[in-house]
Known about the structure:
- With 159 residues, this protein is of the alpha/beta class.
- The chain has a single domain, classed as Rossmann fold (3-Layer(aba) Sandwich).
- Helix content is 24%, strand content 28%.
Amino acid sequence: MYICKETRKPMGITEINSLIIDRNNPYNNFSRPRPIVCLSLEGILFRKIKHSERSMIPDNWLDSAIDITYVKENETENYTLLQRPGAADLLVELVKHASPMIYSTQTNEFIEEALLQLSIAQGDPETYTEAEYQKSEAYMEHSVWSRDQCIEKATVVVK
């Protein structure tokens, strides 16, 4: 890559300006179909760890951790979810411009419980600020693809 001496910008890069949304343009038609953005539940919104592994995690990471319990194949599973910093803010902004679709290799039960607990963790409904309310709502009512929509190959589940 070469830098132009006059503009100090990289040369030879193609910009796709049709993807840029000018929020100040009163002529934008926001009623058109919205793009779908696929987000992986694990890794993008949180990191899942077993309760037995909590001792290996720094204490400050556990400040905003969420404990969830759900039933998987007739056994109770206990996990801790470490929220990604800014995950709720990302969803709030994303919902304004696209339709997020959450996908995961986890079961429907796990996904529903995780999204519910992440929503609840954003604040107390009795004392919500508008920003906390938006973050809470950002975790709910998305299209979700679970293990049921994945392909099982040998010992691996592929999204």
